[in-house]
Amino acid sequence: MILINIFQSLPLLVNFLITFILIIVFYLFGNEIRVRSIRKNPDFINKELGPINGTLLGLLGLMLAFTFSMASSRYDTRRQVIVEEANDIGTAILRTDIYPDSVRQIFRNHFKEYVDYRIAFYESGTDDKKSSEYYAKADSVGKIIWSIAAGYAKVDNITTRTSELIPALNDMIDITTTRKAASQARIPTSIVYFLVSLCCCSAFLLGYDHKGRIDWIMVIGLATMLSFIFLIISDLDRPRSGLINLDTANEKIIELRQLFK
Q1: Domain residues of the chain, as ranges?
Q2: Does 44 have pLDDT greater than 60?
């Protein structure tokens, strides 16, 4: 399990190359076992594993589709949560307009700081230390905003202001926990482990069942296709790194800076 955890954290290109090499090595290993078996027993050449290979490849296809669907679903969830957070922050900022100018300006100053920290949280990428630092800073500013709103509610005679802003602030704070949980939701290690093992076993049996000289075009094509699919799955499962990212969704939070101009 530790090996797979390390494997998931590797750069995508290294991830692709390792999977590619593993598939070719297991294919050649399976073919070598068959060749040795034929040397020991010439009648062995007539034995075929067609039904077994078909079943295993069908299972591999099912697992790839299942894992891809899981990774794609989690990616969509992360994207939707970011857009939802942008909407929640924007709603809270706009509702400060119902307060007197002196109070409104205090809110705006803290909201601007809060938005900057949330943007920095995303832009910190895979740097866990910076990510945690900006998350904590945004949380701290969020608590300050909440305390200001709660304190003003105690002395404000117009309950409409409180009833409008407090729920918006509550949604804004709660969505950060939802977003953090969504970013930490990864494909279970056991599934990744099983998928890699299934790719290797399929390559081994295909090589074991192969007759005659090795068709390198077919072998390289198979390894490339499986490795590429696995690369896409790995990329979808990485919330803030890789080729498939959430930059477009994060632009919605960056656009909130326009509210302070």
Answers
A1: 2-260
A2: no
Q: What is the pLDDT of residues 46-63, one digit of tens each?
A: 566 667 777 888 888 899
Residue 54, CB half-sphere, CA atoms under 13 Å: how many? 4
| Residues with Cβ within 8 Å of residue 117, at least 6 apart in sequence | 134, 137, 138, 141
pLDDT in tens, 109-127: 999 999 999 999 998 887 8
Report the distance separating Cα 244 and Cα 246, nearest Å: 7
Dist CA 108 CA 101 (whole Å): 10
Burial annotation 177-207 (CB, 10 A radius, 16+ → b, else e): eebeebbeebbeeebbeebbebbbebbbbbb
Residues 167, 88: Cα–Cα separation, whole Å = 10
What are the structure tokens assigned to 116, written together?
A: 């900057």
**Which candidate, 133, 86, 93, places its Cα nearest to that of 109?**
93
First to last CA, the chain: 51
The values of phi and psi at residue 48, to 5°, are -125, 150
Q: What is the pLDDT of residues 202-237, one digit of tens each?
A: 898 888 877 777 888 888 998 999 999 988 988 888
Query: How many whole angstroms separate alpha carbon 140 and alpha carbon 178?
Result: 17
Angle in degrees, CA 124, 189, 67, rounded to 5: 90
The token duo for 13 is 């290109």
Structure tokens at 27: 């294919």
Assess contact for 24 and 223: CB atoms under 8 A. yes
